[in-house]
Design goal:
The chain has 19 helices and 30 strands. It is α/β, with parallel strands linked by helices. The chain folds into 3 domains: 29-383, Glycoside hydrolase, family 3, N-terminal domain (TIM Barrel, Alpha-Beta Barrel); 402-598, Glycoside hydrolase family 3 C-terminal domain (Rossmann fold); 658-671 and 748-868, Immunoglobulin-like. The strands form 8 sheets. The chain has a 6-stranded mixed beta sheet with strand order 1-2-3-4-6-9. Helix 15 links the parallel strand 13 and strand 14 (478-482). The longest helix has 17 residues, at 113-129. The protein starts with a helix and ends in a 6-residue tail after the last strand. The chain binds 2-acetamido-2-deoxy-beta-D-glucopyranose (10 copies). Residues 541-545, 566-567 line the site of one 2-acetamido-2-deoxy-beta-D-glucopyranose. The site of one 2-acetamido-2-deoxy-beta-D-glucopyranose has 7 residues, from loops. Residues 770-840 form the Fibronectin type III-like domain. Its EC number is 3.2.1.21.
Length: 874
């Protein structure tokens, strides 16, 4: 019996609609989420009733406490318990009885909007059920400029369109789960090396100590068309929080970059929520407030970021800055309003659970409420099980993201093999357990998650060997294994020579810059498999004519040493699947799920083929990284430079075959001209006179006699009397509030202009899903091909369906740096070529959209043509 993903999903959806724990909200219900004006009205009413120090409390984490610093805005007078948040994109970081989901990488490999939404809805629901108002997730920066980038796996794909869809669905899902999605990291944060002074100098991996985090140069067009692109999707989907990143851009820290935060994010994109710093990414008090940062992480006061010492760039410093006029009071009102608007937007003023665990890795039952002060020892973890039926969604993501790279003569699916040999450390459990190293900071046993703050604790980890054994026993298959990559040649040779099929497992890990493994300082130092992986595969292949390679990795690995070996009959890329790893793999190995993943990046033949890399040695005390390649990263570069990849972007095989035919291009409306953002009436809610100016007495901001001060706690109060002078005066640095445009930019950008339809037929023997991909050539110096649409379609064997993909104005637009707006290229006289295919190089159908006439003229209806290409190879 073929169990399709739809069955699993249906099951999952039924469970979701009627959850045992009651924490799931079905997709259509968006109560308390989706109306910013209402949220702003409530926020304004709340904030205008606050005193100066109460508002400051909202903006500044108190630096110690139950959620280890991630606690804001305790306002006793209003009975407001404050807000708490925690990482991560894979689950609730540092908790127990919560799920460990697949990485963002796998969400991208699935190309499945519904699964992305569902896993992230589960993630949001779990954060909420633990009592967390926000989750520091999902991640779209790094985008993945260099394949070595340590945190690429937390994010989706170097293709901005795929990333935008995945990021948008993730945001919508998490917020439907009830928690504020804090999208991160904003922006141009593409490597771990030199992101922080303290970290870099402590590790000492540079020849000399750096003085500031690296700075990135990136031209405006590249910035808009690649790195900023997915943020449009997120804002349009209602993202309520953003985290600014560690790096500098054009010599200014992102967290005090007026252009990036005020003008672009809050202005051009119409972002309505708040911007928070990362741990140590705030580098100033006044400048960050004026540039648009709204919330600060725990206790940061030096460029090196020092946590837990009870000092802060904000807190009392912000109180003082408002009192002496350095930061206008409206800016503080705006900060507080944005934070509270996010809270109301998510409907958190009703029935929100209390924080019921310690957060930040403290999952023992008892602990200090104020850990830095070692005060108030009590029960801090109530071990609430928040997992619901999320395991089903995670298993479905794992199975439907696995990407089949090679499958000679239908080696897979397995058909009751007589004997299986399982080889490689990556196939089995770690002897230290799945959570044996803090923040997954070691690579032992099977790899199902990268390291750093994008990790979470595994409630269990189904390793491949366990799942294969359980499945194989049903067929009376004999299962032998060797889990040692280094010293077991004799044992390996002996089992693989006997086996009907040998499954050899290899991996490659990476993570966040504060952890180093085997000289990988977050970023990968090479693109090969770890731990003698290549040699292991070659050893098995030399002795077994039916060798299947399974790869768990954070990104592409080089496969040239073995991929063409005649005894390597199949290869699967499984990414980082999370807790259900082995089950997801078995679903595909045995054909219960037909593989349908496609690569979200290119697998090159050499490292140099990519044309981009991490900067590993500082080129100055403030390392400078210039994105000179512009738009040409990943497949855009391979295509332009004429480099043959091993496996191209979008590639992935199936157990069945598909036929594409009959392309139709239908014009839906006239190509539009982007209306400049400035011509829209500001939609926000922002108003410099948010609240009437506070009347302040020293008693409103000096330390109250009624509170006994907890050591290392960040209070909003001043210890000395300060004369309140110039607050009402205009600030000397004439900062103006950004005129916020519509949410997600001009609405025309999202208007569908063309409907592209074609026939897709399953011509094989089993049902399966195909990801059909739409590529365009926009001329004007743009890449030869870029993805601008995709559809994942389930088809039973023999069935044919019409698939439709819409092209929106954004999809046909380039960024005009002179006029600072998006322009549909057909209005520039460009004829757009388009292709539909099974990958970026397996193009099946070709069409074109004719130029629409002169620049800035609303176009008359124009012709569109379509042809079928000679069928190319699969
Ligand atoms: C600020 O928060 C702290 C706890 O985090 C609380 O003790 C204090 O009363 C709050 N201050 C105001 C003015 O609400
Ligand atoms: C770099 O800084 C670290 C401490 O942060 C110090 O131990 C080391 O000596 C410094 N190295 C150089 C080359 O200055
Ligand atoms: C960096 O500065 C250059 C030169 O002023 C400008 O063209 C570019 O848009 C800036 N990049 C970003 C990302 O702000
Ligand atoms: C205020 O900020 C400065 C850094 O600008 C820091 O040295 C100082 O400790 C902060 N004060 C408090 C009370 O946190
Ligand atoms: C695949 O099967 C065909 C027909 O049985 C055979 O000729 C061919 O050698 C096989 N290829 C491999 C790589 O095993
Ligand atoms: C565990 O993994 C680390 C690398 O992450 C390696 O150095 C160490 O040898 C491994 N330990 C064992 C017992 O395999
Ligand atoms: C690449 O790095 C990994 C992890 O540090 C290491 O195990 C492997 O041996 C390296 N590959 C090569 C070819 O040196
Ligand atoms: C393929 O495997 C067989 C053992 O089944 C072995 O004899 C042969 O040498 C292998 N081929 C290669 C190219 O290693
Ligand atoms: C970055 O590289 C571009 C293209 O080579 C160059 O025009 C620009 O001046 C460089 N920017 C910096 C800040 O060096
Ligand atoms: C603040 O001023 C009042 C009145 O001038 C004085 O009594 C009090 O001691 C001052 N407090 C501090 C902390 O300087």
């Amino acid at each position: 019996m073929l169990q399709t993903v739809s069955t699993i999903l249906l099951f999952a959806l039924q469970v979701l609609a009627d959850p045992p724990g009651g924490s799931f909200t079905p997709r259509i219900v968006t109560k308390g989420y989706g109306n910013w004006s209402e949220a702003y009205e409530k926020a304004r009413a709340f904030v205008c009733d606050l005193t100066l120090t109460e508002k400051v409390n909202l903006t500044t984490a108190h630096g110690t406490g139950v959620a280890v610093g991630y606690s804001f805005g305790v306002i006793p007078r209003k009975g407001f318990r404050g807000l708490a948040w925690d990482d991560s994109p894979t689950g609730v970081r540092g908790s127990d009885y919560s799920s460990a989901g697949a990485a963002g990488l796998n969400l991208a490999m699935s190309w499945d909007r519904e699964l992305i939404y569902l896993q992230m809805m589960a993630n949001g629901a779990e954060h909420k059920a633990k009592g967390l108002n926000g989750a520091l997730a999902p991640v779209v920066g790094p985008l993945g400029r260099a394949p070595e980038g340590g945190r690429n796996f937390e994010s989706y794909s170097p293709d901005p369109y795929l990333s935008g869809i995945a990021f948008g669905e993730s945001i919508a899902g998490m917020q439907a789960g009830g928690t504020i999605a804090v999208g991160k990291h904003y922006i141009l944060y593409e490597q771990e090396h030199f992101r922080e002074v303290r970290e870099t100098n402590d590790f000492g991996y540079s020849p000399f100590n750096i003085t500031e985090p690296y700075t990135v140069s990136c031209d405006d067009r590249t910035f808009h068309e690649l790195y900023l692109w997915p943020w449009y999707d997120a804002v349009q989907k209602g993202m309520a929080g953003v985290m600014c990143s560690y790096n500098q851009v054009n010599g200014t820290q992102t967290c005090q970059n007026d252009h990036l935060m005020n003008d672009i994010l809050k202005g051009e994109l119409g972002f309505q929520g708040f911007i928070t710093s990362d741990d140590g990414s705030q580098h100033s008090g006044i400048a960050s407030a004026l540039a648009g940062m709204d919330v600060t992480g725990p206790g940061e006061t030096s460029p090196n970021g020092i946590d837990g010492l009870g000092i802060s760039f904000w807190g009392p410093n912000l109180t003082l800055s408002v009192l002496n006029g350095s930061v206008p009071e409206w800016r503080l009102d705006d900060m507080a309003t944005r934070i509270m608007a996010a809270y109301y937007y998510l409907g958190q003023d009703h029935d929100f659970p209390d924080l019921n665990f310690g957060g930040g890795g403290t999952y023992p039952t008892f602990g200090f409420i104020y850990p830095n002060a070692k005060l108030d020892y009590q029960q801090i973890n109530f071990h609430v099980d928040v997992r619901d039926a999320h395991a089903d969604v995670i298993r479905a993501v794992g199975a439907n993201s696995i990407t089949l790279l090679k499958n000679v003569n239908n080696t897979l699916p397995l058909k009751k093999p007589r004997q299986i040999a399982v080889v490689g450390e990556d196939a089995g459990p770690s002897m230290y357990g799945p959570n044996g190293c803090a923040d997954r900071g070691c690579n032992n046993g099977t790899l199902a998650m990268g390291w750093g703050s994008g990790s979470t604790n595994f409630p269990y980890l189904v390793d491949p060997l366990a799942a294969i054994q359980a499945r194989a026993l049903r067929d009376r298959t004999e299962v032998q294994y060797v889990l040692n990559n280094f010293f077991a040649k004799t044992q390996i040779d002996s089992i693989v020579q006997q086996a009907t099929v040998s499954l050899v497992f290899v991996n490659a890990d990476s993570g966040e810059g504060y952890i180093e493994i085997d000289n990988n300082f977050g970023d990968r130092k090479n693109l090969t498999a770890w731990g003698r992986g290549d040699d292991l595969i070659k050893e098995v292949a030399a002795n077994c004519s039916n060798t299947v390679v399974v790869i768990h990795a954070v990104g592409p690995i080089l496969m040239e040493e073995w991929i063409d070996h005649p005894n390597v009959t199949a290869a699967l890329f499984a990414g980082l699947p999370g807790q259900e790893s082995g089950n997801s793999l078995v679903d595909v190995l045995y054909g219960d799920v037909t593989p349908s993943g496609k690569l979200p990046w290119t697998v090159g033949k050499t490292r140099e083929d990519y044309g981009t890399d991490v900067l590993y040695a500082p080129n100055a005390p403030v390392p400078h990284i210039n994105f000179t390649e512009g738009l040409f990263i990943d497949y855009r570069h391979f295509d332009k430079a004429g480099i043959e990849p091993r496996f191209e972007f979008g590639f992935g095989l199936s157990y069945t075959t598909f036929e594409y035919s009959d392309l139709h291009i239908e014009k839906l409306s006239s190509p539009a001209v982007a209306t400049p953002a400035a011509s829209y009436a500001p939609q926000t809610t922002f108003n410099p006179q948010i609240c009437p100016s506070s009347k302040l007495n020293p008693s409103d901001y000096t330390f109250p006699s009624t509170i006994s001060s907890i050591p290392n706690f960040i209070y909003p109060y001043l210890n000395a009397n300060v004369t309140y002078t110039s607050n009402a005066a205009a600030p000397s640095s004439s900062i103006a509030p950004a005129p916020a445009g519509p949410q997600g930019g001009p609405p025309e950008l999202y208007a569908p202009l063309y409907s592209i339809s074609f026939s897709l037929k399953n011509t094989g023997e089993v049902s399966g899903q195909e990801v059909s991909q739409l590529y365009v050539n926009l001329g004007n110096g743009e890449p030869i091909r870029q993805l601008r649409g995709f559809n994942k379609t389930m088809l039973a064997a023999g069935v044919e369906k019409t698939v439709t993909i819409e092209l929106r104005m954004r999809d046909l637009s380039i960024w005009d740096v002179v006029n600072q707006e998006w322009v549909d290229v057909t209005t520039l006289g460009t004829t757009v070529e388009l292709w539909v295919g099974a990958s970026s190089r397996d193009l099946k159908l070709k069409g074109e959209i004719a130029a629409a006439g002169g620049y800035y003229q609303a176009a008359a209806a124009k012709t569109a043509t379509a042809t079928t290409l000679a069928t190319s190879t699969v």
